[in-house]
Design goal:
Structural class: alpha/beta
Strand content: 5-15%
CATH class: Alpha Beta
Number of helices: 9
Radius of gyration: 18 Å
Distance between the termini: 8 Å
Helix content: 25-40%
Largest sheet: 8 strands, parallel
Length: 280
């Protein structure tokens, strides 16, 4: 059996996310620990954090995954925004440790035209700073990007370069997003293409560094550079691509998190059912 889940809401309280994940019949799930569209946030209440950890343990959902908020840009050359971004990353690491969440997925940001060397230096410093207080099995997972202009990490080689630039290697890993990979030019449409792309991932980054998979179809074509998620099997990757992905030995045992739309065609339940059917 694959471990499949979706991004769920923390509305009302953090531990309602666990209830939401169970209601969606997830095996794993992803959350934002705070408002993802703002800079301000409150410190975690110790009792709320303890309640979340206890309910998570009882739920047998494994693992819980956190995602960084939308606003930070860890590769930003502009000092004020960069400082706010690194402060947010450091705070989010601390929140994950308090909540017992083992993985924090982060986008890699944009160098805004200042050049990839500037972006690499900025994100490496941000990750190093944030991980100074990390402990236990906690890891920041670098998410490959879709190839938008000036973005960092759309190529596997660049993700690996960022990975190698961080001294605390035990606390750094990778999240593979299928939509982003396809949009960046890595074909995942048929079995042969999936084997080639994943072999390239292994040769460049290494499956030993892969902890989380964002399982999303792509609304746009191969190499489009557009980060537009689609329901599983209804986009350009398609059912043949996902069947091959889900039967790949390096993928099927990892937590599979979907960030797919909810609309009149399908909701979370339909995408979870589709993944489980294709994985059989």
């Amino acid at each position: 059996m694959v471990r499949v889940g979706v991004h769920v809401s923390i509305a009302k309280s953090l531990d309602t996310a666990i209830d939401n994940a169970l209601e969606e019949k997830c095996d794993t799930f992803q959350i934002f620990t705070r408002n993802p569209r703002g800079w301000k946030f409150s410190d975690l209440d110790p009792e709320e954090a303890a309640g979340f950890k206890e309910k998570l343990k009882q739920s047998q959902l494994d693992p819980a995954v956190d995602h960084m908020p939308y606003l930070p840009n860890l590769s930003c050359p502009e000092d004020e925004l960069y400082q706010k971004s690194t402060t947010t990353l450091t705070a989010e690491v601390e929140r994950c440790i308090q909540l017992g969440i083992p993985y924090l997925v982060t986008h890699l940001g944009s160098h805004l035209g200042a050049g990839r060397e500037v972006g690499l230096r900025r994100i490496s410093n941000a990750l190093t700073q944030a991980l100074k207080r990390a402990k236990g099995q906690f890891q920041i997972c670098l998410e490959n990007m879709a190839g938008t202009k000036n973005s960092m990490g759309s190529k596997f080689e660049e993700v690996q370069e960022i990975l190698e630039s961080v001294k605390q290697r035990d606390h750094i890993a990778v999240c593979l997003d299928t939509c982003h990979a396809y949009a960046a030019g890595y074909d995942l449409h048929v079995e042969k293409a999936v084997e080639k792309t994943l072999a390239q991932f292994d040769d460049t980054i290494g499956f030993e560094n892969l902890r989380v998979v964002h399982l999303n179809d792509s609304e746009s074509g191969l190499g489009s550079g557009h980060d537009r998620h689609e329901h599983i099997g209804l986009g350009y990757i398609g059912t043949s691509g996902f069947k091959a992905i889900l039967h790949h030995k390096a993928i099927r045992d990892l937590p599979l998190i979907m960030e797919t739309p909810i609309d009149e065609r399908r909701g979370n339940a339909g995408n979870i059912e589709t993944v489980r059917r294709l994985a059989k």
